[in-house]
Amino acid sequence: MKTQITPPEGATDAARERPVALLCTSNGVGLGHLTRQMAVGRFLRATHDVVLFTLSPAAQLAVAADFHVEYLRSHEYGTVGNRAWNGFYASRLEHLLDQYQPEVLAFDGGHPYAGLCAVLRNRPGLRSVWSRRGLWQPGKGHDAFSRSRLFTHVVEPGEYAAEMDRGLTAGGAGASLVTAPVCAVRPEDLRPAGEVRKDLGLDPDRPTALMQLGAGQVNDTGSLSARVVASLRRHPDLQIVVTESVLTRVPAELPPDVVRLRHFPIGEYRAAFDVSVMAAGYNSFQEAMALGLPTLFVPNQSTAKDDQDARTLWAEKSGCGLRWPDPGPMAEPSLLSGLDKSVDRLLDPSEQNRMRRHMADLPAATGAEEIAAVLDAWGQEPV
Predict the structure, then answer these.
(1) Helix, strand, coil % (nearest 5) of the chain?
(2) Is residue 214 classed exposed, middle or buried when 0-12, 13-18 and 19+ CB atoms within 10 A define those classes?
């Protein structure tokens, strides 16, 4: 899967020899790593030809955004064992380095692969950067963290909830730079609310909630998604929109009064919603904060390292959001009733205004631009 790198029409010979930046991503469990690298690449293209080397099955999204893409199937989707796959990864990466001769390589992922580490050891002259997200859970990720030393630099995409970091990444440990938060969608990227509502068949005069919780069938009464929709539907005037990942192959069954939204990036549609209920992954959380969307966060407490619980505690403490930790469908009724109370607070206009006021005081999410600038600078350092 490739798009061709071509210089602008009428470019001079010097412009045709622009440096190359190789942006690598892991697969992850969603679109986070790819989305952040695309956000960085959007700015880095001003100075570099950008090549995206990704394991994400959503690689076509980068192609559609006019990136040159190199795709490798993740070991998670095949039958090849880890050791053999890492050898294949290393061989492919060596080939790409020989082919493109990048000025800088940047990897966005939670755990640098053994194949990547082998290449870094074999190429001490390669300018390499790990874009290593912070807010790791305490006691998690020692092996991954130890691989920081293999990179020329570590850059940490900023985190609104950084003060809550109690893990190995606390205080940006070992990072050459901690940037502002990274947000793939800027305010100027937002589509007008009326336009989005018209496209989705929504009433422009009724309140609308966006639900973005990931896995879970809405018609499965025990699932988190179903329980949240049921709680929202207690408010008859409320319009409910449920996001569906572009990676989803079998669409979920939805009640007739619930609208499906399948779009990338979802953030472009944020202005159409009054409130949202979502998990607290890095990208969606920073985006909700940066775009000022009142949100009830439901932390996913089954992640490998990402401390979503800490992120939502900060949202509540700072006044920027609400949180409801899911006790599970079999919990005591007194615990389950907390969801209805939290949803009622979310739909209270005074609560929404309070959250918006606090979010308005947050710094801008300029992290993608900052990372692009520092990759440009580090790429020119002597090796």
Answers:
(1) 40, 15, 45
(2) middle
Beta bridge partners, 177, equal 155
Phi, psi of 194 (to 5 degrees): -65, -35
Single pTM value for the model: 0.92
Q: If we measure between CA atoms, which residue out of 257, 248, 239 comes closest to residue 215?
A: 248
User: In the chain, which ranges are continuous DSSP H helix?
Assistant: 32-44, 59-64, 82-100, 114-122, 142-146, 193-200, 224-232, 282-291, 308-318, 333-346, 349-360, 367-378
Residues in the chain, how many? 383
Residue pointed to by tokens 């989803």 = 248
DSSP helix/strand/coil, 214: coil
Q: Which two tokens stand for residue 12?
A: 């001079």
Q: What pLDDT was estimated at residue 211?
A: 96
pLDDT of residue 28: 66
Stretches where the chain sits below pLDDT 70 are: 1-16, 28-29, 77-78, 214-222
Domains detected in the chain: 15-182+365-378 (3.40.50.2000), 188-360 (3.40.50.2000)
The separation between CA 313 and the C-alpha centre of its own chain, rounded to angstroms, equals 19
**Amino acid, single-letter form, for residue 165:** D
What pLDDT shows up at residue 29? 65
